[in-house]
Design brief:
This protein is mostly beta strands. It has a single domain, classed as Lipid/polyisoprenoid-binding, YceI-like (Lipocalin). About 5% of the residues lie in helices and about 55% in strands. It has an 8-stranded antiparallel barrel. A hairpin with a 5-residue loop joins β9 and β10. It is elongated and about 55 Å long.
Length: about 180
């Protein structure tokens, strides 16, 4: 990627603005798809002088899952899926950002139900600019796919033939806007 890939990016510590960000997912249900999101999350982006040296951390409140169906959301919170009573949060800690030629990839450790595995997310820098309140904002989008079974989220029901009610592959979709914090000096 060229240096213009990060045009306007200001180094510093940014805090994710949850009111202008989204942590979403899509999973197959029978022959269609179900989309959902998590309503409560927080995180920090540490943008380095060299953008590929930047870091990100995030924590998601799993009880805030929202698929627009209360019964399904309560089932997702249960021991069959997230077990929010004993594992209330999902976390992501980046371990590197890589220029793959035609795309950027952020790699990190995703932890769900005390199981930590590496996750690659395709990363897209959306831009940087001032906001109406005198702050500086940055925006990124990221997508990736996981096997939910890898994190012990493996409940399912059989349907007709070999078809299962819920797919194993989950597409993660992030749209993050973060605000530059004032220097601590």
């Amino acid at each position: 990627m060229s240096s213009t890939q990060f045009e306007g990016l200001v180094p510093g510590t940014y805090v994710i603005d949850p009111s202008h960000s989204e942590v979403g997912f899509t999973v197959r249900h029978l022959v269609g798809k179900v989309r959902g999101q998590f309503r409560e999350f927080e995180g920090t982006l540490e943008i380095a002088e060299q953008p590929l040296d930047s870091r990100a951390t995030a924590s998601v409140d799993l009880s805030s899952v929202d698929t627009r169906n209360n019964d399904r959301d309560n089932h997702l919170r249960s021991g069959d899926f997230f077990s929010v009573e004993t594992h209330p949060t999902m976390t992501f800690v980046s371990t590197g950002i890589f220029d793959k030629g035609d795309k950027l990839v952020v790699t990190g450790d995703l932890t769900i139900k005390d199981i930590t595995k590496s996750l690659d997310l395709d990363l897209e820098y959306q831009g940087t600019g001032p906001d109406p309140w005198g702050g500086t904002r940055v925006a990124f989008e990221a997508t990736g796919t996981i096997s939910r079974k890898d994190w012990g989220v493996d409940f399912n029901l059989p349907a007709a033939g070999e078809l299962m009610v819920i797919g194993d592959k989950v597409t993660i979709e992030l749209a993050v806007e973060a605000v530059l914090q004032a220097d601590a000096a």
